Amino acid sequence: MADRIPGAPRTLLAAWRQLALRWMLASATVAFGAPLHAALPEIRLVEQVSMLPITSGLAHVELETTLYRPPGDGPFPVLVMNHGKAPGNPRLQERDRFLAISREFVRRGYAVVVPMRKGFAHSSGHYSDDGCNLTVNGQNQANDVQGVVEYLRKQPWVDRNRIVVAGQSHGGLTAMALSARNLAGVRGVINFAGGLRADSGSCPWKSALLTAFAEYGAKSRIPSLWFYGANDSYFNPSLASQLHEAFVSAGGMAKLVAFGMFKNDAHAMSGSRDGVRIWWPETERFLKQIAMPTEEIGNLGIDPRLPRSAYAAIDNIDAIPYLQQQGREQYRVFLAKPTPRAFAVSTSGGWSWAEDGDDPVARVLQTCQRSSGEPCRLYAVDDDVVWTAPR
């Protein structure tokens, strides 16, 4: 099920989402008065979290795994989406959900599986740090994903011959390493800014990455689709082109999509709602080429928003209730951020803002509540004040 936001009752949050969705559906009409997506049933993105028992190499481990499934019993085609590696201790890394990607695939009838690999979040085992040997690093990570694929192919709700494996950053390196194994049932691989950067000056990590991709390409016979942006803070366009050349020259099959600039950092494109317009058209073509489904089965792509209130103009900083000077200064910072964004306040003077990603509304309520003794409420979403004064 969906995460509960601390300080916001589950029923209240659910009621807000339902009300907002109804408002959007009522407002979204075409010239003839018919609601958009009227021909498609409304479906929900239902989240399940479990510990997946798999075999990784010679080890038996349990991976903290997020699952989204369409309505029905299946069997469903499956997307296995792999996470990156944040700086610091992998054990402290939060569970990834990839909501923007999951939503687009579930609405087209896919089950989406997001496993946290060994040593990450609440998964058992330990992260294998292979130093500058990035070829082995990717292979060790791929052991986990192979175990996930093999587990899934035994489940009755899975279409065992229609599986796509994808990954972002370190997860992209993992997906490309897995492609070299040519697993049964895996029809394609999607690489979102894949790689691994070593911050230690003693590791020639760029050449190590080139070696890894060349070795994977020499064995891979699975088609792949790659996305790298012009302002990627990890892997610049020159390196992305070299990685692609190394992979393809060795015999791998890959299409590189160099999509240009994306906000402040193209490395985060796949995690943003706004990134869908970049990656979905190319992904749709790729899925059709590998005989995977692309037609929508239901309507869950509408982004619910609270209606604008008449409380104040978005840039009227003095109108915000409860805030001290520091909070008002941070609201000025918030106003300079791109959408999607959200700002929340509480009667105790607590505040928080969040930008980008798939669900800044949920994130801002959660972070605001951590520093507030009173319930937090939304003040602004994107370019609108949504606050209404308590009666």
Question: Which structural class should the secondary elements be placed in?
Answer: alpha/beta
How much β-strand is present in the residues? 15-25%
User: Which consecutive residue ranges, at least 5 long each, have pLDDT under 50?
Assistant: 1-38
Number of strands: 12
Q: Please, how many helices? A: 9
- Helicity range: 25-40%
- Characterize the biggest β-sheet: 8 strands, mixed
User: Into how many domains do the coordinates divide?
Assistant: 2
Query: How is the CATH topology of the largest domain named?
Result: Rossmann fold
CATH class bucket of the largest domain: Alpha Beta
How big is the Rg? 22 Å
Q: Kindly state the mean pLDDT as a whole number?
A: 88
Say which CATH homologous superfamily of the largest domain is assigned: Alpha/Beta hydrolase fold, catalytic domain
The shape is globular
Describe the 3D structure.
The protein has 391 residues and is an alpha/beta fold. It has 2 domains: 37-289, Rossmann fold; 304-385, no CATH class. It is 30% helix and 20% strand. It is built from 9 helices and 12 strands. It has helices at 10-27, 99-106, 134-152, 170-179, 205-219, 237-249, 276-289, 325-335, 360-370; strands spanning 47-56, 59-68, 76-82, 111-115, 158-168, 186-192, 224-228, 254-258, 341-346, 351-355, 376-381, 384-385. The strands form 2 sheets. The protein has an 8-stranded mixed beta sheet, with helices on both faces. The protein starts with 9 loop residues before the first helix and ends in a 6-residue tail after the last strand. 42% of the residues are buried. Mean pLDDT is 88; it is low at 1-38.
